[in-house]
Amino acid sequence: MIKRAFLPLLLLSSGLASAAELTEVEVRWLKAGSAVLAYAKQELKLPLDITVQPQARANDVPLALGYDNGRCKLVLSMRGNPNAEDILNTVPAAQRPLMIEAMVAHEIGHCWRYAQGRWHAVPSGFEERKQTSAAEELRDTRREEGYADLVALAWMQQRHPESYATVAAWMRQVRQPAPSSGSHSTLNWLQLAPTGDSFAAGLPLFEQADRLWQQGLSQDQ
């Protein structure tokens, strides 16, 4: 639940309505993710707000998704954050918009799960192995991250198939340092989608991701 004070932003179909209030970095990230955001708001009708923190905290990631009062909150935490773009350090400048677009698609995957009432839910009949509450919390978060990563890759396959391999390799690199038991270790799912052909063509985006996600659940017990 997000309860901090934010500077609200308005998005119009033609672009940013309040771009004058934004920093250069914020504008660049929102432009890179504009196709995903338009899809989420116009086609999916997701209850999505875009907000900017006026001052990032020490451990804030540049882009995150929360849910509050029935609405998704896509939060940019870049102001006063000198490390906001560290995640892109290994990426050539020309490819960075693609990676940002994938990150935005990842967050929209979270929003979809929230909006559908499926957050931390598993398929009917799936047998859970009993763990401590702390371990279960990590596992549940990791599963949601795995689902969102697959949504990002499914999006790339639909919109940028020629760049799928590049984005998938970068995502594996980003996830690799995480401990296998960590909340953001999603390699169980990323390895199920080494190429765009791993996704079932013709299905809706989230159903494509869900099919592979369910396959990876058995490996994440």
Automatic annotation (TrEMBL):
Source domain of life:
Bacteria
State the signal peptide span: 1-19
UniProt keywords (A-Z) are:
Signal
- Protein name as it appears in the record: Peptidase
Q: Which organism is it from?
A: Duganella rivi
